[in-house]
Amino acid sequence: MIKISKIAMGLSVAALSLGACTENFEELNTRPDALVADNLDIGLLGNAFANAQARAMYLAPGGGTSGFQIAQSLFGDLYSQYFATTQVNFDSDRHTQVGGWSNSAWNYYYGQAAPVIQFVEEFTEANELPVENAIIKVWKVAGYHRITDYWGPIIYSNFGNGETSVAYDTQEEIYKDFFVTLDEAVAVLKQNTGKSAFVGHDQIYGGSVDKWLTFANTLRLRLAMRVRFVEPALAKSEAEKAVADGVMETNADGAQIQTTVNSRNPYWIITNWGEYRMSALMESVMVGYDDPRTGVFFSETVNYQNTGEGMPHKGLRNGLSREELGTPNLNDLHSDMGTIFLNEGRGGSAAGEPWRVLSAAEAQFLLAEGAVEGWAMGGTAQEFYEKGITLSLTEPRIAADAGTIAAYINSNNTPSDVSYSFKPEWNIAASSNIPVAFMTGGTKEQQLEQIGTQKWIAIYPDGWEAWAELRRTNYPKPYPRLNSDNEFVPADVVMPRLVFVQGEYSNNSEAVLAAEKFPELVGGNLNSTKLWWDAKSDD
């Protein structure tokens, strides 16, 4: 008989189906509707796992976009400087943490993703399903690291404890537990290579244990590099462990959630709302580099399509005031996302691009960074750097030919200045003169800037991850915003974090007030306080 311990997570059996929704989940961790099942149909487990995959990335089954828009488009996408908003009422581009939005982003994860992740983890442990348990442990790390990279201290080890006060963990504790959790999962996956799990439900790898093992190792590499400036010895050890066990080498290794007409890429819908456009930094880097990905990532401006005048790809400054956002034709004057992200009526597909979780290209740039540091990565920084570019340019969404790839890798093009004929006061010079071609004779920091810049391009449009890496490395060198409405975060600073959400002060006040006093929040619970891992010297 299928067994399950008395798991009470504010769930119902219906909530485990792919189309389920828990939008009204308001009091986290209070267990109002305990799920107790002694003979739960094991077939439900696969649905729960698929649900966990989607919701951890804020991809609502059924194609809903509100969670994704609030959590990523209105924060990470803008703070990473992939996009700038054109919507008058979107103040987050001026470093304002809109409380209702961040509260909803927090509640979405803890109301919809975390409970299902926990259910699958506890169910597979109780029923002695070690492979399935290992896979959900890996996915748990993939989901939670995104959340802690927004807020820093979060509810983690105590989630689902059934208490009305749920203690937070420090980010240091969380990250170090990530590595332990990955150790446990990888050990099991190594013992079961060639096998499958969650077949018919795994939206990323179709259940392949081998692929999940490679993903786990590459995720370890990402997290190892994240802590490089705060725990360099730990970072080196974990990165070298990941390499020894095998990280992503080909595009076929990449992790992406497949989209369908019933589960579309959220940009498929969001792009119809006309709320943001290509950023000025994107223009400076991609147009300056004459990057072959530019026309795939971004559409030509409406004005250029209509008249053939001006630049085909144009970016907008971040941080426009409400008054500046009233400038006529901002959407027509600047580039929307590329056709691959649009719906059929705008030249796209019926489902949109697959959602990329982690790519082989990113893995190579992480290896390149480690190689610059002198770690045992198995190659040189230049080799990994050029392989990362090659993998990015040969992804199905780009499919560049060998000649195009070679020309780009050897290019001495540099980022360009950005100018506005209708608003010259917005003009800004390029923030860097770093070329594409690897600077074999360059300084260590110049090489790291090249690696960070190319990684930023390659992982587009994952603004969640890009914002984390921009904070960690400061590459590509960001542009200052035109305005900041946040008294603690100046316009020329990358937004360091989100503060704890108001709902926690209502529902979990004892715990969140205790978290405010964590030593790693030395600057207080402010947007200006850097995360634990955000420790690169300003020198």
From TrEMBL:
Q: Name one Pfam family in it.
A: SusD-like
- Has the keyword Transmembrane helix been applied to this entry? no
> PROSITE patterns this protein is in?
PROKAR_LIPOPROTEIN
* Protein known as: SusD/RagB family nutrient-binding outer membrane lipoprotein
In terms of InterPro entries, this protein maps to: SusD-like, TPR-like_helical_dom_sf
Q: In which organism is this protein found?
A: Cyclobacterium amurskyense
Q: Origin, by domain of life?
A: Bacteria
Give the record's keywords alphabetically. Answer: Signal
- Cleaved signal peptide residues: 1-22
